[in-house]
Amino acid sequence: MSIDPLVEEAEAGSEIYPHSTNISDYVFPTLVVASSEFIPPPLPSQNGDVVFQSDWSTNAGTPDNAKDGNYFTKATDATQNVNAPVGGIFRIDFTTNILRRFRAKFAMQINGATTDTMTIFIETSEDGVIWTIRDTITINTFDIKVEQDRTLGSFTSRYCRLRESTNNTFRIRFLDVWEIQDLGGQSPTLVKENAIDNNISTYWQSNSELNPFLRGEFSAIADKEPSAVALFIDKSKITSTQFLIQTSVDGVAWTLKRTINITQLTNLAYNFIRFNRDVLPIRYIRLVGNDGTSKTFAINEYRALIPTSTQWLERQTHKTISPTSTSIGLAG
Question: How far apart are the first and last CA of the chain?
Fold first, then answer.
């Protein structure tokens, strides 16, 4: 990799390790793999198991995306004004009547007077006839998209739906349903994409296990050499006391870059951790718990600094950073 010609010569014994504490300079991995992952239950094979009710049936999008275990695929692309249909807005039939735990993630925008409110119920049913309210959401902001991400308790059910309480009183301008997911008794924090969803309130958390890890793949920018990671961490979710930062070209052979004690991190904030650049362009960065069995590791947000021409011009030089020392600062 050639260095920008405007970069000044580093002083003897130093190399150029670009660094930044501006989160906008950091990019998300294109894919993450975790030691503990949410495994979605198989999709039912029957047709019509996911339905938009009433007026929504003409703008169904890809309904099965609402329960494919992927919180980035939308089931809807509805932006027109429609009456909130009687009996529900969106319904899923999981085809079997068993103990389930649901997570509902959706966004809605409605029309109406500023003095009005709209109530959305998340309901479940064993037979599709008798429905039980499991969660209630009140929306009183109009012409503004309101996002919701709700995890419900465990109960026996076959169906789950979103229902607007007053039916014809309100008109819905916008609806996106990302997931109404059967968690199958699993924790929603096992969803590894929580660490790259640009939302610091969600997080990935491993099971209690040996050397829990989260691995990021930067396939779209594999011809670059990252020089830092930005991690937003909630220490209350972590029982590991130390973790390693490792890089790899192929995801098989790993090079140790930093050893970090959890006590070095600032809680509920972005931590910017710099390390030595690789000689070869790397594709993977892995974060690994490093202190024995039955430990949890958790990350709210995970990004990496991939130097661009602009960032090279920051030309911060630094002595070689020890990959094993825990006595040096996060910036090296």
Answer: 23
